Amino acid sequence: MSKDVPGREPARWLRIVVPTALILIWLVLAGIGGPTFGKLSAVSSNDQAAFLPASAESTEVQEWQKRFTDSGSIPAIVVVEAEEVIPKSELGTTYADLGTKLGQVDGVQAPAEGETTSVAGPIPSEDGRAVEYIVPVSNTDEVKTVVADLRTVADEAVPDGAQAWVTGPAGLTADLVNAFGGIDGVLLLVAVAAVFVILLLVYRALLLPFLVLFTSIFALCAAILLVYLFALWGWIKLSGQSQGILSILVIGAATDYSLLLVSRYREALEHEPSRWVAILRAWKASFEPIVASGATVILALLCLLFSDLNSNKSLGPIAAIGIVFSLFSALTLLPALLAVFGRAAFWPFRPVVGGRPHKHADGVTLTGLEGVHGLWRRVGGLIARRPRVTWIVSFVLLAACALGLTQLKANGVQQTDVILSQSDAVDGQAVVAKHFDAGSGSPVLIVAPESDGDAVLAATKKADGIASAAFYTGGGRPQPGATADPVVKDGHVLIQATLASEPDSAEAEAVVKDLRASLSTDGSVLVGGVTAIALDTNETAQSDLAKIIPIVLAVILVILMLLLRSILAPVLLIGSVVLSYAAALGVSALVFNHVFGFPGADAAVPLFGFVFLVALGVDYNIFLMTRVREESVRLGTRPGILRGLGLTGSVITSAGVVLAATFAALAVIPILFLVQIAFIVAFGVLLDTVIVRSLLVPAASYDIGRAIWWPSKLWRDTTNVERAEVDS
Prior knowledge:
It is a single chain. The chain is an alpha+beta fold. It is built from 23 helices and eleven strands. The chain has helices at 12-33, 57-69, 88-91, 94-103, 143-157, 168-179, 186-203, 208-232, 240-269, 275-302, 310-341, 374-385, 387-402, 415-418, 424-435, 453-462, 506-519, 530-564, 568-594, 605-635, 637-664, 672-704, 713-716; strands at residues 74-82, 120-124, 130-137, 162-167, 365-366, 444-449, 466-471, 488-489, 492-499, 526-529, 726-727. The strands form three sheets. Strands 6, 7, 8, 9 and 10 form a five-stranded antiparallel β-sheet that branches. Strands 2-3-1-4 form a four-stranded antiparallel β-sheet. The chain has a two-stranded antiparallel ribbon with strand order 5-11. A hairpin with a 5-residue loop joins β2 (120-124) and β3 (130-137). α18 runs antiparallel to α19. The protein starts with 11 loop residues before the first helix and ends with a strand. Residues 1-5, 358-364, 476-482 and 721-728 have low confidence and may be disordered.
């Protein structure tokens, strides 16, 4: 297709009907999907246990617990700390009344037959300066509301000179939900604002940034509508973290694809007077790299379906849905908008036929860089003159960054460290640890055959790290020291053991491991509870990492081979993005430990970072290498590399900055996991854009030459130019 021969415009009715229909369809999708934003929380769950596989030991114990208690309640711990020792006379009056009021809050489990309240307490501390209540919250769908009501009651009824906190699993869950509260509004606002500013700087146009943003936001509205329906029907499990990642991923990906199409459109407008012919040429030229890029990300994300952890497994289809709509909007809505507005979209710097000639002050002619100017001309010149030095220096720099991986602490963190903002539950947990056995209210749950019950209970009491243990005797709550007969269900008894350390600490997880090893060798005794859930989650996430990484790499490698019709080039690209990922994770580990002072990282962080960075990093290499291949057919490999780099340099760099900015917006949500993903992906994308795609890949490809296309026809073509001519 010659750019110099004017094309033929489509029929007038097509120019009217097709853009109008596409715009109307997307307006309808956005109109229906937009209001769904506020409904996502109703179908979202942040309960860690819900994301464990059914085969996990802690999941089995949870099912057993429901049989014993006939309730799916989760405990809230209300702790009251006084300035002075609490008189024993007040325990039976003022503090007993507080327990009664707590039990009357809507959403608290109703008392069992023969009991006046389901609330355990007041339980005084040994030093006499604190009491605690264990409140079973039965309305687990409205934990946030129930905990808020408990806090109101506790604050109003607490005696003068004392202060109350609501903590425990229910309190921490409520504060986690509150921390995710900004996902529907603040996160999206920050991400869109950042993208808008970048687009203004990139395009220096007033209208075009709005067209690109409309494309991204409409894609997000449509994606959220489908995700909401899937979650409502129970096909996927939606969490706060996957909801936040979906918004960021769609905005970033749709904008990236839009940047590529707009770049081709501007290029076509400089050769074609008709905006309709220009948009068709731009669409045809952009279709293959955009679809290949989107397909790569979609398939990489769907590899998460092989995960055993349901939170990972659910993110795959959720994020893939987002990429599908990003593709559709960039290839349908944006072309329609660009066709309607034409050159006016670029005002005040409208592209004109013939473009603007650029003079090169360096007086150097480089085959393949004709018409390329500024930074990308200088980068191309560097690669043409010193290709081997360029890629070796880039490789060494990335390898040095990757050494920081030795300091990565991704073995999970305490739940009290997950929330980065002020949390009543986190503060309350510290008060509980100060005055009581730190594990009170979040017992280790042990299910044993009735015949072995006494022996298992005795062994549990002797175990290191266990403060106390007792059979469950009914009433829906722990009863340490109870003398009543244990409840028996299907030939099994339930033992509740109080940990001496905080239930979400590494010490507590070690106790659970020891109990599992010592209490049963045949699997007849099951150990669960809050601590076991965290332990199983971390171990499952680590096994997922080892399983999914090879699958993702294999899928991407096959796609690249099909796209580039080569073996060597895809292997080079895969190796470059893996090295880039390792470098990003290494630098992130150093920053997390020594700059931000984070206590560690969730075990799923390396996996999520890998999937996003490798898939998105390959995106930019696809944008680059598809253009390089196109130019290599005309000019030869080495001139084609310089030409492809020069023509795609600014648009891919802009796309990288946009994606980094959108992922960085995740940091506004005060959740440790999201802040760490925000940094890893934002930094990794910039690293990939600036070093890998701009220097390492083109320099290594230039150094290899025509063999980069082995074993395709392009490699066998003996007329393929081996080296760009450099004349001074």
